[in-house]
User: Fold ASCH domain-containing protein from Saccharopolyspora erythraea.
Amino acid sequence: MLSSRVLRGVVDGRITLAFRRWASPQARTGSRMRTAAGVIAIGAVEAVEPETITDEQARRAGFDTAAGLRSSLDKHGTGRVYRIEIGYAGPDPRVALREQAELSASERADLDRRLARMDTSSPRGPWTRRMLELLRDNPGVRAAELAATQNRPVARFKSDVWKLKELGLTESLEVGYRLSPRGRGYLDSPT
Assistant:
């Protein structure tokens, strides 16, 4: 939803608004969004008429002028225009989590339980260890290539990686993924 340029602006406080054209709101007031730059807090989300956007609001969204912002909106998306208040809420807690390479016995047991739950709830059976090993052995390989090796649609493959990322076991790269130090620690620790 937010480019790296915009994320940098949000983190340093220059960008406090975003405008999007959506058929229905895709962000909720009070929600939070984890991004590569950290956690972004979502404030008010309001439908607005494009012609009411001011130059000052456009600057708060990272544009030089309201006309430039409106031109961008005309090129992206369909539906109504929404103004979204955004702000930096701090670092992504998964970053610190994924850096913890050494696992205590209780942390290991907790991960074992969570991964077992994912495996047993999957219609295809156990998959989490196989996925962790695949990412360990193929860092930086495109998701489409890895998905093909698993006979998985790319979207479902990415969803699987995301589930492991939520536990701090993987991290996204510019292209592909890799195991985090925590993920390597998990695979390397005795079961």
Q: What stands out?
A: The mean pLDDT is 94. The chain has two domains: 4-91, 94-188.
